[in-house]
């Protein structure tokens, strides 16, 4: 089946819906493809809020937010992206309010704001109330609001379609190939511009806050085209997931005054981050929790968790401002945060890396910055490098609305001025072969078994703490798992809603993402942000102040070729940014925010 649109968006989470909405406002025909019904997208799991320097509770400025973003990203953040973001997110929040998003309110009727880890006033002097929230259901409210607005603007939705291939020829993208879950039919979508916004790949880890659908499909497809994935070594572990389950416990729980305690009842974050304590950036809190567990101060039957303590907070704060996580604790753990300590542990949460893009969402094809015409990306799928080596809390939802909007606007602008590209002959041939190979394989391997081994070994060998020998071991494990994957046998012959087939397809995508991540992490011989190496403890700005670009090595299967892209780091004084990969002490003194060890 064949479809034609001016702009095609893949993914219906916050970034995809924002991109589709602003493309539709650009007077072009827009379609959105999603693995799920849009309001079930993973953005709905985001609880805490959107960081924006509104200053509704206390003085705040976008420059302070930009500083926190760059410092939180351990100076790998591209500063042009951080400046655009810190300015634009203020306007974007007010736009969402005007669309009808039901933000929580102050007594004066303004958008309420609360503290969040890593957000400070006056360039790091103290915590600031910057997170704009709707109780602890902010992401859910964003999805509902943006979906309604897209319906109003006439966006066409293709729900429960699984994208299998990008159609790229002669440096231009002209559409995608997708599998319809309800019929088993292959569809070709022909478009002038395509926006990728299908989320991350957290399911490669055993303990994760990510939905089952977040398997890195489009990252893998991009990688299989010989195109790069940027900064894949940087993966954020959120410090607080419900123990064993990984279900997210919002950082807002600490913003409201929650305290992390070890088995002795000690507020241990005072030892690791004496200024911000429990509100230090996520990488610091995650490593602190893991250190407590390693040193024998964990809680629970396996001593692999710590407690979050809310019992000192007023009941109305817990029941009203933190209602969702309170319900989750009662439902899944049988614990009431009003009177019980709740055990938590770090959970794989967010990919800082992904498909490299410009600040306008255009997809980058190589180290030199060449672009793929007509192809854009936004959200966790993309790496505009707003987040650098470690994303600041609340900046994910801000990223979705700011760069989703920019991608939609620019894709529509492009689509208005070009004709549809010629489609290659038989664009579906590779996708059909992919499905037939899985359905007709005569092997005895089981996708679920391989997936379990992938998740466990990635958690153990490329998790919060990393070292060379473990990651070298993981490289060999991935080669073995990939060889076994060639013999996966899909036994279900069904055409309609064949979940076994979909899981087998997703496993192939996950193996690609795990491969790119492991090789990138092994290659980066320093510790920075969320990438913490026990054999290279220090940050090395002289050699590693640069972005990694991972390419699939077709000449040597199972290997990855690593290239590099400079960090956009220095303001030249006229509003233009120049890229630097290394610096001298004299140059460092001129930087907008000089690199220095982080203290909190």
TrEMBL record:
The membrane-topology field of this record reads:
Peripheral membrane protein
Its keywords, alphabetically, are: Electron transport, FAD, Flavoprotein, Membrane, Oxidoreductase, Transport, Tricarboxylic acid cycle
Q: Where is the Fumarate reductase/succinate dehydrogenase flavoprotein-like C-terminal domain?
A: 451-572
Cofactor(s) needed, names only, are: FAD
Which top-level enzyme class is recorded in the Swiss-Prot or TrEMBL entry? oxidoreductase
Tell me the route in metabolism or biology where this protein functions: Carbohydrate metabolism; tricarboxylic acid cycle; fumarate from succinate (bacterial route): step 1/1
Write down the SUPFAM superfamilies for this protein, in alphabetical order.
FAD/NAD(P)-binding domain, Succinate dehydrogenase/fumarate reductase flavoprotein C-terminal domain, Succinate dehydrogenase/fumarate reductase flavoprotein, catalytic domain
Question: Which PROSITE patterns does this chain map to?
Answer: FRD_SDH_FAD_BINDING (PS00504)
Q: Does the keyword Nucleotidyltransferase apply?
A: no
Official protein name in the record: Succinate dehydrogenase flavoprotein subunit
Gene that encodes it: sdhA
């Amino acid at each position: 089946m064949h479809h034609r649109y001016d702009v095609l968006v893949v993914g219906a989470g916050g970034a995809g819906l924002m991109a589709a909405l602003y493309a539709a406002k650009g007077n072009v025909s827009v379609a959105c493809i999603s693995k799920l019904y849009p309001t079930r997208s993973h953005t709905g799991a985001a609880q805490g809020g959107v960081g924006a320097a509104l200053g509704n509770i206390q003085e705040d400025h976008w420059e302070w937010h930009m500083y926190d973003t760059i410092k939180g990203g351990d100076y790998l953040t591209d500063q042009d992206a951080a400046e655009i973001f810190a300015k634009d997110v203020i306007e974007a929040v007010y736009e969402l309010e005007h669309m009808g998003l039901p933000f929580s309110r102050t007594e004066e009727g303004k958008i309420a704001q609360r503290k969040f880890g890593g957000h400070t006033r006056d360039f790091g002097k103290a915590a600031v109330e910057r997170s704009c929230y709707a109780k602890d259901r902010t992401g859910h409210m964003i999805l509902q609001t943006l979906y309604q607005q897209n319906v109003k603007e006439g966006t066409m939705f293709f729900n429960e379609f699984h994208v299998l291939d990008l159609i790229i020829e002669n440096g231009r993208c002209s559409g995608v190939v997708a599998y319809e879950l309800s019929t088993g039919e292959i569809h070709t979508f022909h478009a002038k511009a395509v926006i990728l916004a299908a989320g991350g790949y957290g399911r490669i880890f055993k303990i994760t806050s990510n939905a089952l659908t977040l398997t890195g499909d489009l990252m893998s497809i991009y990688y299989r085209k010989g195109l790069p994935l940027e900064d894949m070594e940087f993966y954020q572990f959120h410090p607080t997931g419900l123990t064993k389950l990984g279900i997210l416990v919002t950082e807002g729980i600490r913003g409201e005054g929650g305290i992390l305690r070890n088995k002795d009842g000690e507020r241990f974050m005072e030892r690791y981050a004496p200024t911000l304590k429990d509100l230090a950036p996520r990488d610091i809190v995650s490593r602190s929790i893991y250190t407590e567990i390693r040193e024998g101060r964990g809680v629970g039957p396996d001593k692999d968790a710590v407690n979050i303590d809310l019992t000192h907070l007023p009941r109305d704060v817990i029941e009203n401002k933190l209602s969702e996580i309170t319900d989750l604790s009662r439902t899944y753990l049988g614990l009431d945060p009003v009177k019980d300590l709740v055990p938590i542990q770090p959970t794989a949460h967010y990919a800082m890396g992904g498909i490299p893009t410009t600040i306008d969402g255009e997809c980058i094809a190589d180290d030199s910055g060449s672009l793929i015409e007509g192809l854009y990306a936004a959200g966790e799928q993309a790496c505009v490098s707003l987040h650098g080596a470690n994303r600041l809390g609340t900046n994910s939802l801000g990223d979705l609305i700011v760069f989703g909007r920019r991608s939609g606007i620019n894709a529509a602008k492009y689509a208005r001025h070009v004709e549809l590209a010629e489609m290659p002959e038989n664009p579906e041939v590779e996708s059909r072969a992919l499905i037939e190979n899985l359905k007709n394989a005569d092997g005895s391997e089981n996708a679920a078994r391989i997936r379990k081994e992938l998740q466990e070994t990635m958690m153990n060998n490329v998790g919060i703490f990393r070292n060379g020998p473990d990651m070298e071991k993981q490289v060999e494990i991935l080669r073995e798992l990939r060889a076994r994957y060639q013999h996966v046998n899909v036994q279900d012959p069904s055409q309609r809603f064949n979940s076994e087939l979909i899981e087998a397809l997703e496993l192939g995508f996950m193996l690609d993402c795990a491969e790119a991540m492991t090789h990138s992490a092994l290659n980066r011989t320093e510790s920075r942000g969320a990438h913490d190496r026990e054999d290279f403890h220090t940050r090395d700005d002289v050699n590693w102040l640069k972005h990694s670009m991972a390419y699939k090595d077709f000449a040597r299967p199972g290997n990855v070729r690593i290239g590099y892209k400079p960090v956009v780091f220095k303001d030249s004084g006229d509003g233009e940014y120049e890229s630097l990969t290394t610096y001298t002490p004299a140059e460092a003194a001129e930087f907008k925010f000089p690199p220095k060890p982080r203290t909190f």
